[in-house]
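== Sequence, structure tokens ==
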Amino acid sequence: MQNVSNQVKNRQSNNLIPFIPDGDFYFTKGVEAFQKRKFEIALKWMNKAVEAKPRNPLFLCQLSVIYTEIGSYHKANQLLTQVLQSSGEDYVDSYYLLANNYAHLGLLNDAKKYADLYLEKDPDGDFVEEANDLLTLIDMDEDDDEDWGPLIDDEDELLVYQETAFYHLEHEEWDKAIMVLEEMLTLFPDYHIAKHEYAFAIFNANRQEEALEMEIDLLEELPNNLNSRTNLALFYYLLDAKEVSNQFLQGLEHVYPIHEQQKLRLAITFARTENYQEAYKRFRLLDKSKVKGHISYYQWYSVAAYHIGEGSKAETIWKEGCKNHPTLPNKVEPWKA
């Protein structure tokens, strides 16, 4: 009887089909994790998929997208370059993905090159709108170089005005900031950045309609100007015109400026319009040594951190801000204000 029983068990065992995961299984698991924004898990599964099928262009593209999402743009570009070398004509989207990654890295010439290539090769593709937005924002960054205005003869005097206006703006002393900026614009009428700061100050001093009209006029003069677009995104948001605000914000999501002050402006704009995930990502990309003199850096970075669930990080940022800026310790934490 024991022999018969063993034979039955052996037969049952022989009839079992073992489950052996393949590349498609790993790919599906990776996509599921990615859609749930569990990027570390997605990366693990997708790497297994690529190990199983190293030349599968779809797997490589999806792995590159995960690397992009976690900020590993160089790794993403290596994969996309590999795809283009082996299957370029079948995976034209890779050109746009490369353009997007180069824009994140601040390599705008490369970003423009690949965005143009994408539009040339697939003028009706899925990323046409995004590619055109990206090209517009690259032009915007170039326009911002013109926004500094002509060379100023008396740079020392201009610097005094800049520092004074900056102090009042950072401390939200709007009336004092307005007085300084008005005098500054009288003496240096071609200094464009002061015009945007003036619009920002008068908006916060309850002259919203005047500020809005001024910034719209400035945008007409330089249609791709980053300062105009960040101001208008915030103005419309605070005026409860969320749809108009979102139109500006969607365009700004694709731009990564070269200048640290512009990077900070974007991060603060995203935080103040409650786009906390994007804001937090932008704040983390900043060179703190170049922006630690801004109270607004600590204020809005801590707010963004708090609202994405990084409460301890928010407290650390705020404590550091209080240490560096004597006027802050008596203020309530900004996410509680």
